[in-house]
Amino acid sequence: MAKKITLTVNESLFAKIDEWRSSFNLSRLFQEAVAEAIKKKEEFQRMLSGTADIPKIVERLKAEKRGSLEKAAAAGKEDGGAWAARAHYEDLVTTVASIASMASTEAVYAKNSIDAESKSLEAWELRRSIASMDDKEREDARLAYRDGWRTGVSGLWDLVKEKLDDE
Question: How many other β-carbons are positioned within 10 Å of the β-carbon of residue 155?
């Protein structure tokens, strides 16, 4: 016995479906597509059955992803601290102010901060070969690196700023 379901599609797809409705048996097309997708999932699960514990795999991969992002942040922190140690006073002060304003108001990041951070990020990406990652994973790694870089710059500044007024 057939059961009825309701599908939701965006307006542009609906317009195209409506235009071509007479050329397709939508019920059959949907049934065949879903049946094929389910078949692939079931075959994959059968292949893994007995040899893999999916929840354990997911937990392991989550832990590895966290570790990878922690490494990216640590590399950024190290590179940011190293940049700050070499930076000229005005560049460092401007960058630290930009980092602080970003954290509180999302203000525009100063150009020299963007340049220094971007150059560090580019060099790190080349060393780590993250270009082969998919877009979301690559962006997560970049964000972790950038956060680490900013932490490294701010951390060095926190260590030295009070000593600058000593005579």
Answer: 13
